[in-house]
Specification:
It contains 15 helices and 14 strands. It has helices spanning 17-29, 72-96, 111-120, 132-135, 142-154, 163-172, 187-194, 219-232, 250-260, 277-286, 301-308, 321-324, 339-350, 353-370, 373-399; strands at residues 3-8, 36-40, 49-53, 56-61, 101-105, 125-129, 157-160, 179-180, 206-210, 237-241, 269-273, 289-292, 313-316, 331-334. Strand 7, helix 6 (163-172) and strand 8 form a beta-alpha-beta unit.
Length: 400
């Protein structure tokens, strides 16, 4: 079945896990009936634009909604003006490309628009949950939770990238059902990008942490641990890649940077900001291991990329890590929030670099075997077929 895959970026220049997932999935589906990617644009994407790249149709435009908290009247009038054009453009896209299923990603207000589009065209609609949208569901505004529940109850199939996300879904919206489809990775593409040259000046021995400066990513735990690490292994460095200050979390970012500026560690902790895959993967390839001290996660792509490159993982024992990787060679888990145990693991594993390299090789075998892009694509094609079958059965029962 040919899908229209809909996703959203917070910033056009910051491409995280959802972007990697939809790109990997679309590339895998391109040779089996085709695929169209639609990125819900930001303010600067007022005009429709599209391109075809390696068999995948890429489209982008901002999708206005009828409410605007800052300018409610003006926002509603702007929506009345923009809605008919956006509706016609998407109708034309779906019909010209012969779309058979609409695949939403994450939980956003604009999904009401695409759910309505699916119902108007009698197409099945599926939704994939990726991370904090359910783990932080209770923190959303009441109106936003109502919209999210409305969408969750009316899509034809729901998938989650990990079992803990599915449990969170059941907790907040118990009447819906879902399945787990883990993320997949194109190991060959990752290995090719990792061999790219990197012009950045990097330490000789370092551990890498990838993630925007957010409390959920746990950079504060890693920075605190490094104060202990450098006392025992002064040649070890910590490299942090990610957006330096996300909106609403400036205080956390400032706290992390302030602690990293202490004289004991200031020369051992390096913030590289946002890096494109062409730079991030070479940085990962040269690292000794990947650190993931997160407080909650779905199934982060950087973990799969590290594993595919044979880089060991040192991560907090949160689900899904404890569920998926506790018995996997090359994965070393420490108690969540424990800077002491994180430091101990870093010092212990770095003391035996040959064993660390071997552990990474064992992890690579598992990632290539169990988390391939091809298996992910097959699972989503099966989900599309299930959604179409369920939607057809539901439509017949309504007709009767």
């Amino acid at each position: 079945m040919k899908p229209l895959i809909v996703y959203h970026l917070l910033f056009n220049h910051v491409k995280g896990g959802i972007h990697t997932m939809v790109s990997t999935l679309s590339n895998s589906l391109a040779n089996s009936g085709g695929v169209v990617l639609f990125r819900v644009g930001l303010w600067e994407d007022a005009q429709w634009h599209s391109r075809v790249e390696e068999g995948v149709v890429h489209c982008c435009k901002r999708v206005r909604m009828p409410w605007d908290r800052r300018r409610p009247i003006r926002g509603f009038l702007a929506w009345l003006w923009a809605f008919p054009q956006s509706w016609r453009e998407l109708l034309r896209l779906v019909r010209e490309e012969k779309i058979e299923v609409i695949h939403l990603n994450g939980l956003y207000d604009h999904q009401l628009f695409f759910l309505l589009l699916a119902r108007y065209l009698s197409l099945p609609c599926v939704l994939t949950l990726h991370g904090s949208e359910m783990l932080k569901f209770a923190q959303r505004r009441p109106v936003q939770r109502w919209i999210n529940r409305f969408v969750l109850r009316r899509v034809d199939a729901i998938s989650c990238v990990s079992a803990p996300l599915l449990s969170a879904l059941k907790q907040h919206v118990p009447e819906v059902s879902g399945s787990v489809i883990g993320n997949g990775i194109d190991g060959k593409s990752v290995a090719k990008l990792a061999q790219s040259s990197c012009s950045l000046s990097l330490p000789e021995r370092y551990f890498l942490l990838v993630g925007h400066l957010l409390p959920v990513k746990g950079q504060d735990v890693a920075v605190a641990a490094w104060e202990r690490v450098v006392r025992e292994q002064p040649e070890l460095h910590l490299v942090i890649v990610g957006h330096p200050s996300m909106v609403g979390e400036e205080a956390f970012a400032e706290q992390v940077r302030e602690r990293a500026s202490q004289k004991e560690v200031v020369d051992h902790i390096h913030f590289l900001g946002v890096q494109p895959p062409s730079r991030m993967l070479p940085i990962l390839h040269r690292a000794m291991a990947l650190l993931v001290p997160s407080r909650s996660e779905g199934l982060p792509y950087v973990l799969l990329e590290a594993g595919a490159l044979g880089k060991p993982l040192i991560a907090s024992d949160i689900p899904p890590f404890s569920d998926l990787f506790s018995e996997v060679p090359g994965c070393f888990l420490f108690p969540r929030e424990s800077e002491t145990e994180l430091a101990r693991l870093v010092v212990e594993k770095s003391a035996e670099p040959e064993k660390l390299v071997q552990a990474g090789r064992e992890l690579a075998k598992v990632i290539h075997r169990d988390y391939s892009a091809e298996s992910m694509a097959r699972n989503y094609q099966h989900l599309y077929a299930q959604a179409a079958q369920g939607y057809g059965a539901g439509k017949k029962s309504q007709d009767v």
